[in-house]
Amino acid sequence: MKESFKKVKTEHTILSEFLPFLTKLEQEPGIQRMIPGRIARQQKGSSALRFSISTQTPTGRKAKMSKGATSQELFIITEKTSGIEKSYLEQLRTAFTSTQ
Predict the structure, then answer these.
(1) 10 Å Cβ neighbour count for 42?
(2) Is the pLDDT of residue 66 over 70?
(3) 82 with 37: CB under 8 angstroms?
(4) DSSP string, 8-57
(5) What is the rounded distance in angstroms from the CA atom of residue 95 to the CA atom of residue 20?
(6) pTM score
(7) C-alpha span between 97 and 81 (Å, rounded)
(8) Cα(1)–Cα(97) distance, rounded to whole angstroms?
(9) Is 34:8 a contact under the CB 8 Å cutoff?
(10) Dist CA 95 CA 51 (whole Å)
(11) 10 Å Cβ neighbour count for 33?
(12) b/e map of 65-100 (b: 16 or more CB within 10 Å)?
């Protein structure tokens, strides 16, 4: 089944475990676009899902979605409103924990 997104640019395959999370995340009004990167696969590690926000970029934030040793970067483009960044970071964490 092909997943349909409005704000996610699907140039690369998306880790299937994160599809419900991205569907919920794209409903946030301050997020303009999400661009997943390439998937890096390794043959070891646990199967736990992890989501971490790593770096601020000129247009938003870079995050990392992981399942075990398989990981994928996610670039999140947000509105350029000062003071809004902290609340969006908390919303991202809340959205991830509520999809598990």
Answers:
(1) 9
(2) yes
(3) no
(4) B--SS---GGGHHHHHHHTT-TTEEEEEEEEEE--S-S---EEEEEEEEE
(5) 10
(6) 0.72
(7) 25
(8) 24
(9) yes
(10) 10
(11) 15
(12) bbbeebbbbbbbbbeeeeeeeeebbeebeebbeebe
- Which residues are 53's β-sheet partners? 63
Adjacent-strand bridge partners of 36: 74
In this model, does residue 1 exceed pLDDT 50? no
Residues, the chain: 100
Tokens linked to 78: 């947000």
Q: Hunting for tokens 């070891």 — which residue is that?
A: 44
> Distance between CA 82 and CA 66 in Å, rounded?
29
pLDDT tens, residue by residue, 2-57: 555 666 766 567 777 888 888 888 887 778 888 888 888 877 666 788 888 888 88
